[in-house]
Amino acid sequence: MASKKQIVLDFYSCYNLGDDLFVEAFAEYFSDCEIHLLVNPKCVPKRLPKNVRILHFSNVDLRLRRISNLASQRGRQRMVKTVEHMRQKKLERIAQHCDAFVKIGGSIFMQHAPGCREIDFSTAEKPDFSLRQSTGGRGNRFIIGANLGPVYSEDYWEQMAEKFREYRHVCLRDYASYRKMCAAPNVQYAPDVLFLVPKPYPGTCEENVAISVMDVSRNTEDAAVIRAYYDLLERAIAYFLDREVPVTLMSFCQWQGDEQAVQELLNRFPEEKRLSACCYRGSARRILRVLSGASFVIGTRFHSTILGISFGKPVFPIVYNSKTAHYLADLSFPGKSAALEELPSVTLDDVLYNYRNQIVADCADHHRYAVNQFRVLEEYLEEKEKDIESSTV
């Protein structure tokens, strides 16, 4: 009997619903593989598929980290360096013997400011793991599900072209990113991975509204825009509550301030029992049921828009950066949307337009072809298995 293929999976581990669903979708598709999940030590996932192991937090690694922390507290820097070196070597041994190293995520290569050369999310958050040292050549490295940007300078594209040469295959999720990199033979396009997430049974049939909110002060310093964001959502909430339609405010990422934004809106309706909150804290089922059962979705988070569209809902997207705008273009989105900076001039009628007219985007092709995000990796693993079988005959 053939042993299970071993995959090291790197992702943006920040208790973010979209990124955690990437891991779930990947693990389900590659259910016959053993997946070693590379995580930010501060954000260890609470629930994992059965075939997923935490790479940083094996029992041995926990002991090493405790020794390192204790040595650091006592000022024994030489011991700290020795222990951290042991941790690095342990990770490298696991990665070197894996069949594939996969980086999965959406906006995982961002230029944070003009001239900034730190564009890989792993650089700051996982300093104890070196991709170059741990995986040797580029033969087993893959990128799945990414978009490129935001971009502030043209040399970004040269950086990305250089980085992508380190990988066997790169699959991008929007055409805007793909068009910039399509000259590279190892780059392809496929729709967002979350179009593979099945629509759950909602458990309710009554009319209700789901609103994804976020701390937009992280995306703009314009006080007028921030004020307009909350005021516009307040008017939308009041509209539905006045008609006795329940409203659920959703937080997709506590670490990035979504729950503060939820609380800001809850505070504006202190006595309203039909207004509730659904905050992601590691279990996606409840939020997926809320989206599945919604009559209308107002989406700020990128994946609230994607999941709402995937589940066949009228959605009003609030576009906080280019990735949402690019994906709406790929969908030929037929309804109204609004960029963050446009909110001071957006009316309640604009927000309700897609709901009142029951405008739903056609995403059949995105459902059909999202699986192509995984195809090249799947073919690579199958070919590797054949090579092993032929060598043992």
What would the keywords be for this entry?
single chain; 393 residues; alpha/beta; Rossmann fold; 2 domains; seven-stranded parallel β-sheet; six-stranded parallel β-sheet; 15% strand
In short:
With 393 residues, this protein is an alpha/beta fold. The chain has 15 helices and 13 strands.
How would you portray this structure in words?
The protein is an alpha/beta fold. The chain folds into two domains: 5-190 and 371-392, 3-Layer(aba) Sandwich (Rossmann fold); 209-366, 3-Layer(aba) Sandwich (Rossmann fold). The chain has helices at 17-29, 59-73, 77-96, 122-125, 131-135, 155-164, 175-181, 223-242, 258-266, 285-293, 302-310, 322-330, 348-356, 364-369, 372-392; strands at residues 5-10, 33-38, 52-54, 100-104, 141-146, 169-172, 187-189, 209-212, 247-251, 275-279, 296-299, 315-319, 338-339. Strand 8, helix 8 (223-242) and strand 9 (247-251) form a beta-alpha-beta unit. Helix 2 (59-73) runs antiparallel to helix 3 (77-96). Mean pLDDT is 87; it is low at 122-130 and 132-136.
